[in-house]
Amino acid sequence: MTDDEDAADTHPREEFHEDPLGHADVWAGMSVGDLATEYGKAGIGAAEMSRAVDVYTEMLERDDVTNFFGLAGAMVPGGMRKVVTDLIRDGHIDALVTTGANLTHDSIEAIGGKHHHGRTADSGHERDHDEQLRDEGVDRIYNVYLPQEHFTLFENHLRDRVFDEFDGVVATSEFTRELGRANLAANDENGVDEDAGIAAAAYEHDVPVFVPAIQDSVLGIQAWMHSQVSAFTLDALGDLTNITDVAFDAEKAGATVVGGGVPKNFVLQTMLTVPDAYDYGVQLTTDPASTGGLSGATLDEARSWGKLEKSAKNVTVLGDATITLPLLVAAARDRLE
């Protein structure tokens, strides 16, 4: 008898259960769904990613689940615009909560602007690098560049096609619907090569887009400026009614949260205003839970607040969402086919 067997006999194991770890196999031509399955044999982050695919796939394949999607961070500048747009078009997002910044960048691409590959500065030259970009009229989002003239294009678009449609108080989700309509029209009329994008797809498919911190963006600044010379203003509290109506009508509910901040909390807190809570949850974040901050708080923690059902299936995956989001979506699509 080995020392390990002696230890097992002396100390009954309540936490440990026989579940041998496997080793992920990879091969040429494997699908993303296959990769997620192989991740499930492994441990650490791979195991969490595999579980996230399992939960997300179940969320999408059930017809009785209303899917709420929170999108924070620089996801549009980071190249995730088409991933989200296609989810909307395929009926996998029933309510979108995002930032004014993501809608700003989405609109810029819809009307003919373009983000570009850039770079981070060499060590010790960070200040000089960004001062040079400022002199050249180029904004940097980590390793992505955006010429500032695209913001002028966007501001003209708002004045010419969006603001004049309103006179008075309007809920943010009504404003973003009109933005989507305008983006779609401009994209079509001007023959823009890039897709009309997130707001346009939401408009076409009647998916509400909520931006609870819209003032924290170029879109919000432009809305405020217009409010100074007109009766137009945005009603942030009106969207609490609108998103609560979606939640109240849901038979089952699932939350996919990309990043943290206001979009994450707005998605999750919605269940505090209705009798039920989320039945499914997947979170993709870079932030650890140990700071106590919202962006890193796990979905297990959200259960203590009553935002998730005690029986909910949920996973939190740590990692860059420009890596984890396409993997999550592609693997789920493989399994749904």
TrEMBL record:
InterPro entries: Deoxyhypusine_synthase, Deoxyhypusine_synthase_sf, DHS-like_NAD/FAD-binding_dom. It holds the Pfam family DS. The keyword Transferase applies. Gene3D superfamilies: Deoxyhypusine synthase. One of its GO terms (cellular component) is cytoplasm. It comes from the Archaea. Residues 8-22, 119-132 have a biased composition (Basic and acidic residues). Residues 1-22, 113-132 are annotated as: Disordered. One of its GO terms (molecular function) is deoxyhypusine synthase activity. Keywords: Transferase. The keyword Methyltransferase does not apply. Belongs to the deoxyhypusine synthase family. PANTHER family: DEOXYHYPUSINE SYNTHASE, DEOXYHYPUSINE SYNTHASE-LIKE PROTEIN. This is Deoxyhypusine synthase.
